[in-house]
Amino acid sequence: MAKIDVKSVRDVENSVRDFKNWLAAFKTEYDLADEAVEVLDEKIAELSDDCKEIKCDRSGKVDAGSVKTVANALRDTKNWLATFAEEYKLPEEAVDVLSDELDKIGKKLAAVECK
Predict the structure, then answer these.
(1) The domain over range 6-110 is classified in CATH as 1.10.260
(2) SS3 at position 4
């Protein structure tokens, strides 16, 4: 039975770490609202935890259901970022960079494979 390529999942986790680092930097640089930082950090931690559940199906391909859970967590995080961007008037630079980092996570997620 095929197994998840650990390197491809590690790439997703590295992108998650990059998002968290940017979030921490912007928290300090722009004094982002505590609620926004806490919720985004919580959502990204949930996404990271869900990555551990990605698995291969019997045909040797990535199980769509296991990836969907991560994709849903990613979508939720992006939605919260958009909500907080308006609610707290987050700086445009921070929103753009964080949104780009979330897109990078999505691209890495799409590249996860079985071997």
Answers:
(1) no
(2) strand
Mean pLDDT of the residues in the chain: 95
| All residues at 6 or more sequence positions from 3 whose CB lies less than 8 Å from its CB, including other chains | 56, 114, 115
Q: pLDDT tens digits, residue range 2-19?
A: 999 999 999 999 999 999
Q: Please write the tens of the pLDDT for every residue from 97-108.
A: 999 999 999 999
Handedness of CA 77, 79, 81, 87 (dihedral sign): negative
Give pTM, 2 decimals.
0.94
Q: Round to whole Å and give the CA distance between 49 and 10.
A: 12
Phi/psi of residue 4, nearest 5 degrees: -60, 135
β strands within the chain, DSSP E: none
- What's CA 86's distance to the chain center, in Å? 20
9 closest CA partner among 39, 49, 44, 52: 52
